[in-house]
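Model: You mentioned two targets. I'll fold them one after the other.
Researcher: Yes, keep them separate.
Model: Target one:
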Amino acid sequence: MAKVKPFRGVRPPRPLVEEVASRPYDVLNSEEARLEAEGNPRSLYHIIKPEIDFEPGTDEHDERVYGRAVENFRKFQQEGWLVQDPEEHYYIYAQTMDGRTQYGLVIAANVHDYVNGVIKKHELTRRDKEDDRMRHVKVNNANIEPVFFAFRDNERLENIIRTVAATEPEYDFTAPDGFGHTFWVVKDADMTAAITEEFAAMPHLYIADGHHRSAAAARVGLEKAQENPAHTGDEEYNYFLAVAFPASHLKIIDYNRVVRDLNGLSPEDFLKRLEKDFIVEDKGTEIYHPTALHNFSLYMPDGHWYSLTAREGRYDDNDPIGVLDVTISSDLILRDILGITDLRSDKRIDFVGGIRGLGELKRRVDSGEMKMALALYPVSMKQLMDIADTDNIMPPKTTWFEPKLRSGLVIHKLD
C-alpha cells in the first residue's frame, strides 16, 4: 500500500512565482534555457540548468555546474525568492490546456514504495541519466523538481480536490506557452489525514512521467539510509516529491515517428510491402489523423496521407505489450520492412511529440530530411496501468504527457 506524507514545501512568495517557475530541466537544451532565463536572476533554470551561468558550451555535468546549483539554491533561499512553509502540507496543483483542466495532489512519496514495486513504472531508465539526477538531488539535498504520478480514481480524494479548488488559490497564472497553472495549500487537518489514509489504501501508484527522477530519488534515499546508523525510516530523505493525478484527469497524446530512408525501397514498393499486414488507403493531401487503435497515419514524399489499418491476426489482443500500436508499428513496419530494430539508438529514426501536431510530420518529410512519417493513435491510461500492473515495460517513446509539470512551484527538502 502506498505510503505518502505532507511536507514543508519550499516555494516562491506569490508575487515572484512567475519569475521563479520554469519548464522541466529535460524538455529544453542549455541554450534554450539560457534564452528563457535571460535578464531573470530568479529563474529556476539557475538551479536546474546551472550551466547557463557559465560560458556557452560548458558541459552540464561539469563539477562546477553542480556546485553552482547548490550556490544558487542557497542564494534563492537567502534572498527570499524561495521560502519554506512552517508547517507540513499537501498541495493541489491544477494545469489547464486547451480548455481542459487536470488536478493533482502534491505529495511526498516513499522511496521504499519505488524499490518494492508499489510505485509502478512502465519505462526503462538509462544509468547515465539516473546518475545525473541523483547527483543533482544529492548536492542540493532536495528534490527540486517533481515526478508525475497517476492513481486509479478515488471519490474521497476527488471530493477533497473539488472542495479545495473552490477556494482562493495560492498561485494562478498562465505560463508563456499558454498553459494555465493554479496551486492551493491544503490547510485543513482532517483533509490532510484523509489524503494520507486514502493513499495508504491504494495498492499502487503509477509513474506517468519522470522515471529517471524517481530512480534517482530512490537511490539517494537508500544511500542516506545506509549512511545513517540511527535510521528509522521516518526521515525526510525516505520521501521524494511527486504530483499524483487521478487517471481520468489525464490524457496521453500521440508520440509519432519519422524515418530518414525506406531501406532501399522505392515509395511504391514500400506501400506494396505494407499491404501484407495492413489495409492501405490513400487519403489524399489533407492531413489524416488515426481514428482508433490499430489505425495509423502515414505521410509520404508524394504529399499524400495514407490510412494503415492492421489486419486481423497480425497482433495479439491478449498480450498487453503486443496489442500496443507502438509494438505493431515497431514490429511490422520499422523492423520487418525498414530494418530498424533498436528505437533507442538507431539514427535513422526520430520521434515527434503529438503536441507539435501532424503538420510537423509533413514538414519533416516535405523538407527532404525524412522519407516517411508515421502517426499513432495515443495509448490510453488504462493500457499504461495494465502494463505496469503486469510488470511489463512499454517500448521506447510510447507515451507523451502534456502539459508538463511546471518546476519551481514547490520543492521538497531531504532534511
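Model: Target two:
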Amino acid sequence: MIKKLLVALLAVAMMFTVVGCSKEKTETVKLDPNNPVSLTVWHYYNGMQQEAFDTLCEEFNLSIGKEKGIYVKGYSQGSVSDLEKAINDAADGVVGAQDMPDIFSSYADTAYATAKKVGLADLSQYFTKDELNAYVDGYINEGYFYNDGALYLFPVAKSTEIMMVNKTDFEPFAEKYGVSLSDLETIEGVIEVAAKYYEYTDALTPEVENDGKAFYGRDSMANFFVIGTKQMGAEIFEVKDGNVTLNISEDLMRRLWDAYYVPYVKGYFGAFGKFRSEDVKTGDIIAYTGSTTSSMYFPDRVEGEDEAYTIEYAVCEAPIMANGEHYKVQQGAGMAVTKSTPEKEYAASIFLKWFTQKEKNLEFVCESAYLPVLKESNTIDALDKVIAEKNLTINPKAYDSLSNVMNGFENKKFYTSSCFENGYSSRSVLEYNMADKAKADRAEILNRAANGDTYADVVAEYTGDESFKNWYDAFQTALNAAVYK
C-alpha cells in the first residue's frame, strides 16, 4: 500500500515537473547579444501610428534588444485587408508571396486560420500567470483559440466604438427641435433624432421635395450585428469547441433591420465615402459610430461643394439597442508569432512584453488613439502621467475619445465573438449584406420617385413586411453558406 502511494506521489511530482518546465521555457532558451535574433513584424499601421511604432522598435533595439540580442524591424503592409491578404498568401505558399513574418498583426479569425496552416507559437509558455493576469481579461481570453490552454494571439492595442458628432451643425437643429445629445444614447433614439434632422434639412429647400440630409452613419456593419445581438441577449455566432451555432431568429433580425435598413432607405442614415469621418467632412452626415481610432480623422472643417466652415465636435457613448445590456465592442488586432525556433519565439515574447508595458503602451496610445492592454494602464490618471512625464502631445479628439472609454473602464463590459473556422467570410456577410442592399434600395427609391412614383408609397413598399421577409430569407441563406461551407 505504501509502495503504491509512493508511486502515485512520484507520478504527480513528475506531472508537475513537466508542467513547470513547459511554463519555464524562458529559463532554458538562451540568446546571444553577439549574434542577435532578427524579427520581422508585419502590421497595418500607417501615418502617425506607423511612425510611433517604428520609434518604439528603434528604442527597443537600442536598449533591451541590444542587451539580450534581439533586433526588431516593422513593415507596414498597407490596410488591414492588404495585411490579411499578405498573411494568407504567405501561409498558402502562393507563388511570389513573401515568407511568413516572425510576428504579425492579426484579428482573431485570420490568426485562427493561420494557426491551422503554418502553426503559431504558444505564447503562454513565455509569460507567468501573474504577468498574464495583469492584462485586461477579455483581451487575453481572445487569444485562446482551443481548449488546450495555449495563447496564440497577444493583445498589444485595442479599441472600441464611440460616437462622434459635428456639434456646430447639431446645435442649431437641436435648439429648433428640442433634442439633445442625451437623445442619442440608444439606436432608436438616434433614429427619432435623424427623422427630425431629415425634416429640418428638407425644409431648407422647400422648392425641392424629399432632399433631406442623412444624420447618422456607422463604420462597421459587422460590429452592428455582433454587438446588437449581444445587447439583446444573444450571440450571433455562438462558438463552443470550435462548433458554431447561429442565432439569427426572425425577431432579432427584424430589430436590426428596423435599426439600420429602414432609416437608411428613408434617408435618415447614410454611407457615402469609404469611412463615415469622410462623410462628416463633406457634410453628408453629422454623426457616426466608429472606433476610438477614427476620432483621429474626425474633420476640423466641413468642405462641401458650395461652402466650407470650421466645426466643433462632441464625443459620446456609442448608442445601444433600446432596453439592451450595455455591452461595448471589443476590437483591434493583436500580435501572433509564427511557430519557428525557441529562440525566435522567446525573442518575440520579450518584445511583446516590452511593447505592452505601461509606459511604452501609453506612448503608442497617444499617437494612435488605441486603448492600452494592461489593466493598470486604462485610466486617465495613467495617461495624463505619461503625457506629462514624456512631454507628449496628443490629438484632442483622441484624448477625449480615450477619456470617454477610460472613465469607469473597470465597470464596462466589452464583447467580441469567438473565432471559428469560417469566421472571416462570415463577418464579411454581416459587413456587406444589409449595407449594400440598403444603399441600392435607397438609390432605387429616389429614382422611382423622380420618375413619377409617389415617394411615400415607394418607401412603404421597401420597408414593409414582405421586403423584410425577402431580405431575411436571402440573409439566412448567405450567412449559413459562409459559416458552414
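Researcher: Noted. Anything on target two?
Model: Residues 423-450 form the longest helix (28 residues).
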